[in-house]
Every structure is written in C-alpha cells, then in structure tokens.
Specification:
- There is one protein chain.
- The chain has 15 helices and 11 strands.
- The chain is an alpha/beta fold and about 325 residues long.
- Helices cover about 50% and strands about 15% of the residues.
- It starts with a helix and ends with a helix.
- A 5-stranded parallel sheet has the order 2-5-8-1-9. A two-stranded antiparallel sheet has the order 3-4. A two-stranded antiparallel sheet has the order 6-7.
Length: about 325
C-alpha cells in the first residue's frame, strides 16, 4: 500500500478516536490534540488543572477507544513503591513447599493514570522512573517488561500545595509534554451539566488498537526535518538558558533552561503534528505550536521569577517572539 494511502487510513482512524473522546468530553480540543501528540510520540503526559475538569475521564476514554488496558493509581502520602510496581509474595504449593511468587502491580498496563502524582513521597514517585524511561520494572533482582505501547499520564492540582511533594526535575524531564487543562467556557459548562444530570450516556466504542499507535509512531519517525527547522528548534532551546540568550525575561527570571530532552521532545511532537496534518515534513509553525507543552515544565524560574508570579509560559512566549523577529 502506498504511503499516502496508508496515512489516509491512519488519519481516518485517529479522527474516529477524536470522535469517541468527544462523546464524553466537552470541549478541551487543544488538550486532546496535545495528548495525541504525546501518545503517537510514545511519550508520557503531565496534566495540570483544578479538580473536576475531566482529566481522569479523558485518559480513561483514550484507553477505551484504543482498546488498551487501563489502570488508575491514586497517589497518597502513604502509597509505597511496591503498591505501584508489585511485590514478591510467599506462597505455599500443594506439596507444602514455600516459594515466592511475583504479584504484578497496577503499573503493568498500557495506560497508567497517576492521579495527583505530587501527593506521594519522592520515594514512591521514583518508582515510576524506570518504568517511564526503560518500560521495565525491577523487583527482587528480576527485570520484567511492561506491555507495549506503554504510557504514564499523570495529573496534579496547580493550586493545592499543602501536603504535596513537588516533582523533582529529573522526573519532570521524563514527561514529553505538560498540558495545562483550562477551565470550561460558559457554553461548555452548560453542556457538561446537561450531559451529567440527564439520561445521556456516552458509550465509548473501540475504534483503534495498540497496533495503530505503534504504526503511527513508526511513520512519525520517518517525517523529514529540514536543517533550518532543526537549527531553529535547537536555537529555541538554547534561548531558554540565561547564559545563552538575549531575551530579557530569561536572563532576569530563569534559573535553568531546558535540557537535551527538551529539543528531542519538540522535534518528536512536531513530527507527529505534521503527520496528523497530512504532511511529510516539519515546518517552523510545528515547532512554534509544540514549544509551550514541551518546554513549560523544563524551564525553572529563579527566586525573583517565582516572587513576581512569572509563569514559564510567559518566558517561552517571549523567547518565541524574539526568535520570530529575527526570522523576519
């Protein structure tokens, strides 16, 4: 089958996935699209928003539409690493002999929702690092592979910090994108109320599979990136560093800029965005579109920036504006 026909077939299936998600989700089109970028990159997602915006529902619906196994882990201060990865239990067989048997934890699923991830201790949060990076779990000296495709989609509340443990930079860097989930508009709120207080039932059908995700991931890797576009992405990343930039907001408010994973995430997400638009090459606008979700959690503010209430998005936007002026 020609590549163009194959792409058309994939895009039709992806559109059906969007339609299934739309049965239960009201609005949030940008959030859904950014999550699809991460899924088709094979990356993990950090969703940030106030409670009640449908973050958990969105992740669960994606898993249902793509016929993927789903597990939800509610992160709490008393959650232990073994509650996530699993543990060896002592068993007695029919002959009366004792032996250890591995009991898999909820991490053994295609889609794992880490709900309110910043409520668990750093020790428990670190239990996800191997799974997110290597797609394996090591318990009792044995390393076990996780099912493929594998995604961690974590949520956190941006306003409630009492009793929470901020994610360390190393773990934040493992998330391909950080998606800010906005509050619904007046019309969207009205539709949410009508759907949830009536007999309406949005039944999600299985319209895709893990094989589609893996096929799109492979095709996205083959998308071309021109040298000028790649150089622009690298320049954008370097401009988030105080020692490498002429941008006033960065030199004044940023403590540390994005690392190498930042530009890797930008290029990977830009490739997927181009593919979902039916193109086989990346453009400057693809880099601009993915810059915020891929960099906002990789730019760390200094004391002055935090004291003045500066948001990393504002810093990244100023960098984009300064680079856009240079390109004119």
């Amino acid at each position: 089958m020609p590549v163009t026909e194959k792409l058309d077939e994939y895009l039709q299936q992806i559109e059906r996935v969007r339609a299934e998600i739309g049965k239960v989700m009201v609005g949030q089109r940008d959030v859904i699209e950014q999550m699809l970028w991460a899924v088709f990159c094979g990356g993990h997602v950090l969703l940030e928003g106030v409670p009640g915006l449908g973050k958990t529902l969105l992740v669960k619906t994606l898993a249902q539409a793509c016929e993927l196994s789903f597990q939800r882990i509610q992160f709490t201060p008393d959650l232990m690493p073994s509650d996530i990865t699993g543990t060896n239990l002592l068993r007695v067989d029919e002959a009366g002999k004792q032996h250890f048997q591995f009991q898999p934890g909820p991490i053994f699923a295609h889609v794992v929702l880490a709900d309110e991830i910043n409520r668990a201790t750093p020790k428990t949060q670190s239990a996800l690092l191997e799974a997110m990076q290597e797609h394996t779990v090591s318990v009792g000296g044995v390393t076990r592979p996780l099912p493929e495709p594998f995604f961690v989609l974590a949520t956190q509340n941006p306003f409630e910090y009492e009793g929470t443990y901020p994610l360390p930079e190393a773990q934040l860097d493992r998330f391909l994108v950080k998606i800010d989930v906005p509050f619904p508009t007046e019309d969207e709120l009205r539709e949410i109320v009508l759907r949830t207080t009536s007999v309406y039932e949005g039944t999600v059908e299985k319209v895709a599979s893990g094989s589609l995700i893996e096929s799109v991931q492979q095709m996205a890797r083959e998308i071309l990136v021109a040298d000028d576009v790649l150089a622009y992405a690298v320049k954008l990343l370097l401009a988030t560093h105080p020692t490498e930039t002429a941008c006033e907001a960065v030199s004044k408010y940023v403590k540390a800029g994005a690392g190498p994973r930042g530009v890797q995430a930008m290029i990977a997400a830009a490739k997927v965005r181009a593919l979902l638009a039916g193109r086989f090459n990346c453009a400057y606008e693809d880099i601009d579109a993915v810059a915020l979700p891929t960099l906002r959690h990789r730019v760390f503010l200094n004391f002055e920036g935090e004291a003045n209430g500066i948001h990393p998005d504002a810093v990244v936007r100023e960098v984009l504006d300064s680079l856009a002026k240079e390109r004119r």
